[in-house]
C-alpha cells in the first residue's frame, strides 16, 4: 500500500519535471538560441495541378507533387527550409513582384511577357498544349472549336493560346476559371465542349477518366516549366546551379519517373 503511494508520487514528480522541461525547451526555441535556424524561403504555387502540385485528400492535406519534390531537393542542397503558399495561378506573378513569395514553382512557363516582371530559371520540364474534350464528342483540331464553349485556366498560356486561335478566325466562347479540377468538372458535366490545358497534366486525367479524350494542338511551339523569381533575385543563379546538377546526376529523371509514370488522378 505504502509502496504504491511512493510509486505514484515519483510518477507525479517525473511528470512535473517533464512538463517543466518541455516548457523551458519551448522558450529556448522561441529565443532562437537552441536550434540552428535555417533561412526559410516562401514558395508560391497553385496547388490545382497534378502531378506538379496538388493535394491528394486520400493521403492527407499536404501539398505534394513534382514541383514540391524539386523545391525540397534544391532547398536541402542550398541549406534553406521551405514554406509553401497556395494561391490562384493568376496571382503568382504579382505575389513575386510584391515579394510576398521568394520564388514560384507552379509548372509556370517562361514567357516574354512574364519576363518583363520576373526572372526565370532554366526550363526543367517541357510540355505541349492539349485540347481535351468528351470521348463521345471528340474535338481534335483547333478549327473544330468553332461555335464551342472552351474552358482555360485564368492567366495561363493556354488562355493566350485559345485567344490566339479565336483571333485567327475560329469563333468560340472562351471561359476562364481559376482551378484545373473545376475545368475538368465542367467538361465532364457537359457544360463545356472542350478545355485547353497542358498535356503533362491532361494525361493524368485522361488515364483515370475514360469519358475524356485528348489531342495535342498541332504546330505549337513547345512550352515548359521553370522556377520564377522576383527580378534580380540572387536565388536565380543558386537554383540554376542545382537544377543543372539534378539534370546531370539523374535526380530530375528519377522525379519525372516518380510523378509522370503514375496512372491515376481523381
Ligand atoms: N504552363 C502553363 C503556364 O505557365 C500553365 C501552368 C499552370 N500551373 C498551375 N499550377 N495551375 O501558363
TrEMBL record:
GO molecular function terms attached to this record: ligand-gated monoatomic ion channel activity
Domain Solute-binding protein family 3/N-terminal: 40-263
Keyword Heme found: no
UniProt xrefs under Pfam families: SBP_bac_3
Signal peptide extent: 1-22
PROSITE patterns per UniProt: PROKAR_LIPOPROTEIN, SBP_BACTERIAL_3
Domain Ionotropic glutamate receptor C-terminal, residue spans: 40-262
InterPro entries in the cross-refs: Iontro_rcpt_C, SBP_3_CS, Solute-binding_3/MltF_N
Keywords associated with the record: Signal
Main localization (coarse): other
Subcellular location: Cell envelope
Gene3D superfamilies: Periplasmic binding protein-like II
One annotated Gene Ontology cellular component of this protein: cell envelope
Family, per entry: Belongs to the bacterial solute-binding protein 3 family.
Name used for this protein in its record: ABC transporter substrate-binding protein
Amino acid at each position: 500500500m505504502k509502496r504504491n503511494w511512493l510509486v505514484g508520487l515519483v510518477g507525479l514528480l517525473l511528470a512535473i519535471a517533464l512538463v517543466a522541461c518541455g516548457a523551458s525547451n519551448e522558450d529556448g526555441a522561441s529565443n532562437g538560441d537552441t536550434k540552428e535556424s535555417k533561412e526559410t524561403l516562401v514558395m508560391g504555387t497553385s496547388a490545382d495541378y497534378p502531378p506538379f502540385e496538388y493535394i491528394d485528400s486520400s493521403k492527407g492535406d499536404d501539398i505534394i507533387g513534382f514541383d514540391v519534390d524539386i523545391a525540397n531537393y534544391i532547398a536541402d542542397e542550398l541549406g534553406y527550409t521551405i514554406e509553401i503558399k497556395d494561391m490562384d495561378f493568376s496571382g503568382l506573378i504579382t505575389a513575386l513582384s510584391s515579394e510576398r513569395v521568394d520564388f514560384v514553382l507552379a509548372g509556370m512557363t517562361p514567357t516574354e511577357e512574364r519576363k518583363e516582371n520576373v526572372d526565370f530559371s532554366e526550363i526543367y520540364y517541357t510540355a505541349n498544349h492539349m485540347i481535351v474534350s468528351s470521348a463521345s464528342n471528340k474535338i481534335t483540331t483547333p478549327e473544330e472549336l468553332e461555335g464551342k464553349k472552351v474552358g482555360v485556366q485564368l492567366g495561363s498560356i493556354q488562355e493566350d493560346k485559345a485567344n490566339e486561335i479565336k483571333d485567327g478566325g475560329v469563333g468560340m466562347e472562351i471561359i476562364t476559371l481559376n482551378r484545373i479540377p473545376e475545368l475538368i468538372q465542367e467538361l465532364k458535366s457537359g457544360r463545356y465542349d472542350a478545355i485547353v490545358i497542358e498535356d503533362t497534366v491532361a494525361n493524368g486525367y485522361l488515364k483515370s477518366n475514360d469519358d475524356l479524350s485528348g489531342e495535342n494542338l498541332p504546330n505549337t511551339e513547345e512550352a515548359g516549366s521553370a522556377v520564377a523569381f522576383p527580378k534580380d533575385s540572387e536565388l536565380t543563379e543558386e537554383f540554376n546551379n542545382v537544377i543543372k546538377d539534378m539534370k546531370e546526376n539523374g535526380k530530375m529523371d528519377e522525379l519525372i519517373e516518380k510523378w509522370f509514370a503514375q496512372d491515376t488522378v481523381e
